[in-house]
Amino acid sequence: MKTNLLVLVFAALLTVSASAQELKVDAPKSVLKWNGKKVGGEHYGKITLKEGSLKVNNDKIENGVFVIDMNTITSDDLPAGDLNASLVGHLKSDDFFGVEKHPEATLEILNSTTFVNGKATVTGNLTIKGITNKVVFDVTREGYFFSTLVTVDRSLYNVRYGSGKFFANLGDKTINDEFTLDVKLVMK
Fold it and tell me: Domains of the chain by range and CATH?
């Protein structure tokens, strides 16, 4: 009888541990693309994920943390040269992301709904320029691949340059407050 009970307890522990997964991001294989729009145009590029991990249990994301290296922001819509360098320099300046003082942005995953047909809704805290705000977004999972499109209101993070919320009479110099991050994560 003791042997049967021990076998059942051991089997239960294996089942629980088999359903919980600690996943680490494969940063070089993962891609983060940003897109910002303005009156009459847009700019887009990439940014590098420094590190990250997720804990998935019973088809839910329990928690996780991702660190974005703000020094790696690039512009892919402009050809290499002075104009491209000027845009990237401006994005790194205090007008935008203040990269010298805030070299990293973080996303802390707080939880998710259960994945149904490979999709779930995730709640987390996004920190940019030392300011944290709640974000909610949908995630698609295919095995060890996760993808999402996150919309971020930059004005909530004191990124005010060209914002119609803070400056009047900008006309065709207005830059949309929302930008998107198209995220493709490869986990291992």
Answer: 21-186 (2.40.128.110)
